[in-house]
Amino acid sequence: MSEVCLVGGNPLEPVQLFPLHYPWAYAHVQQAKHNTWFPEEAPLHDDLQDFSERLTSEEKHAVEMLLGFFNPMESLVTTNLIMAIYPVVTAPEVRLYLARQAWEEANHVMAFEYVIKTLPVDRERVFNMHKDHPAVKAKEDFQMRLTQAMLEGGYDLSTLGGKQRLLYNLVGYFVVLEGIFFYSGFALALAFRQRGLMKGLCTIIDWVLRDESLHLSFGIHLICEFLREHPEVMTEDMAWSVQNLILEAVRLEEAYNRAVLPQPLIGISAESLNGYVRYIADRRLEELGLEPHFRQPNPLKWMAAQIDVPELVNFFEARHVNYEVGFPRG
Known about the structure:
Layout: H1 23-33, H2 45-54, H3 57-85, H4 92-118, H5 123-132, H6 134-151, H7 160-194, H8 199-229, H9 236-260, H10 270-287, H11 302-307, H12 310-317, H13 319-322
């Protein structure tokens, strides 16, 4: 067996897990097995009645935008994992989790398709939103840019530029898409349950959130391990670039939320949701070893109980002790 390395090894090497070289990755695999679920386990008959009889036209629009974002983005995550990350991240236990994550992302696509085909939404408008709605398209373009950069000809992981391109992709998907964009969407969806609405959809969101919390944890571990093995990647300029990537994402998410919530609905406003986005963006910056930027409290206190599920808390937070990486600080 050739020498095990996190990235750049032989992509055709058969999987030999033990002895483990990255036990944190295998721990994520073990946790992920307990998260297995299937969309049809969540009944949607009450949601159908809610959508048809109880939601206002503005609330229906918010649900359609939520579905119009999540459905294509979950698909894009799957594509990025398989085409951009899996070929170059070669440690066996890390690849094992990436394969599991790809299945989970595909399951999320099927879950949102299940909701779309069950509810009387404008199916064509929902599916075309990632192309037709400026705020949704801007977020997709942001993510597509990162994937396309990994697939360009001449991409070489043996160079500093190639490694920095990989870091950008990891931050853009694990930290931004799964750790900011998705969490903002979770907050909007779960606000319906705060008002006793769309409980089946929110059950699916609970399950997706459980998966995504683990994806985020895995991604932070992966980034920190990558930087530990390749410390030359995190130059001072690169640290600023990573921070600016996250701040650009915050601006995109704030614009999207203003489009979803032109006026307050279901007990939530664009301003409160954007305050939550800024709050979690600071958490992501700190998890990467960077200084927080916004320094504001969480305006959606009820989301803490939704996210900090007991079986993930200790595992998720443990990385701060064991996987802290010293990014240059401004």
